[in-house]
Amino acid sequence: MKTNTRKWASVLLGLFACMLLSAQSKNAALLGSWRMSLPDAPYGYQEGTVKIEEKENKLMAISNTASGDITLGELKLSKDGKSYTCDFYAEGASVSMTFKLKEPKKIEGSVFAEGMTMPLYMTKIEEAEKK
Residue 72, class by beta-carbon neighbours within 10 Å (0-12 exposed, 13-18 middle, 19+ buried)? Predict the structure, then answer.
């Protein structure tokens, strides 16, 4: 009986380890700096960068545009595991962002604010570009 219990415990431990590694690999693809394009946004918010970091096991994002820095907050993985969302405030307006990693270095999504839906595009900034 103890042998069966140990086998099941080992199997469960292995499953949890696989789930953890899978989540980490998805997050790793998002980490870093991204060039952002939000063509339908108001002036000053149309272009900029987004930095995605992992802090305390949470994905956090900060946007930098001509209008200044905005803390986008925690990026949450959707229930289907295919997209990310975050909610934040910009100049007093409630904003919601949803996006998917389309390719290893491309993100596409939408930003919803003040009754408007705007397309969002991001491309990964390579280390060589930063210098």
Answer: buried
Distance CA 38, CA 123 (A): 12
pTM of the model: 0.75
Instruction: Give, in order, the Cα–Cα distances in Å from 16 to each of 21, 30, 41, 109.
Output: 9, 22, 42, 30
Is pLDDT above 50 for 116? yes
Opening angle at CA 102, ends 96 and 105, nearest 5? 100
Q: For residue 53, what are the contacts with CB-CB under 8 A and spacing of at least 6?
A: 31, 59, 60, 61, 62
Shortest CA distance to 59 belongs to which of 101, 31, 78? 31
